[in-house]
Amino acid sequence: ADDAKIIRYQKVFYPTAVCAVSGEPAEPGEELIDVLVDGRLVRFCCTMCQSKLDDPEQKAKILADLDAKVIEAQAPRYPLETCIVSGEKLGSMGEPIDVVYQNRLVRLCCKGCTKAFKKDPAKVMADVDVAIIEQGRSTTTLKTCVVSGEALGSMGDPIERVYGVEYVSFCCKGCVKQFEKNPTEFLAKVRAASKEKRSASAPADKG
């Protein structure tokens, strides 16, 4: 049950709709095969591709390729401007270092922070969640649940989630489940609301 929950959660922000080995989508009428590898979701088109995990070199390549896709997908929307470990501004110590953990991107300021991250990644990711939630509250214009349309807070405290690098709030647990079954449409609304907020707060051109 826990594995199924992790898979459902990570499918929301999985960076591609094709097999991690062949690059092909699932056959018509079928789903990709979902496998947890070291706590992260990896998707395959067939059992033959999945069997590549048995070879350590192939496994390492599959995960490295997936890392690259996660970074490509999440980096443009990464919301934090400071390193979650040191608190230093990202870019102040050279190019930020991109680290992928369970298919989620975290950006760090230096190699020293990378070492600190590896000592307790779960704790650091919990801090990332807190920071993204705090930022999300101030950068979204959504006052209603993205699924039901009900006012946030009308059914108790809103339920807040972080998917990859994105903040989403819901009115109830039922809406969380519905969102995770078909996130594409709902994520588009979330992104539009965040973009609207950023555009409104941007300084006006002085022409």
How is the secondary structure organized here?
Blueprint: H1 2-13, E1 33-37, E2 40-44, H2 47-50, H3 56-74, E3 97-101, E4 104-108, H4 111-119, H5 121-139, E5 159-163, E6 166-170, H6 173-181, H7 183-201
Word description of this protein:
The chain has 207 residues and is of the alpha+beta class. The protein has 7 helices and 6 strands; from the N terminus they run H-E-E-H-H-E-E-H-H-E-E-H-H. The chain has a two-stranded antiparallel ribbon. Strands 3-4 form a two-stranded antiparallel sheet.
Radius of gyration (Å): 18 Å
Largest sheet: 2 strands, antiparallel
User: Within the largest sheet, what's the order of strands?
Assistant: 1-2
| Strand-pairing-aware structural class | alpha+beta
Oligomer: single chain
Please estimate the helix content: 40-55%
* Portion in strands: 5-15%
The run of helices and strands is HEEHHEEHHEEHH
Shape: globular
Span between termini: 58 Å
How many distinct beta strands?
Answer: 6
Which regions contain 5 or more consecutive residues with pLDDT less than 50? none
- The DSSP helix count reads 7
Query: How confident is the prediction overall: mean pLDDT?
Result: 91
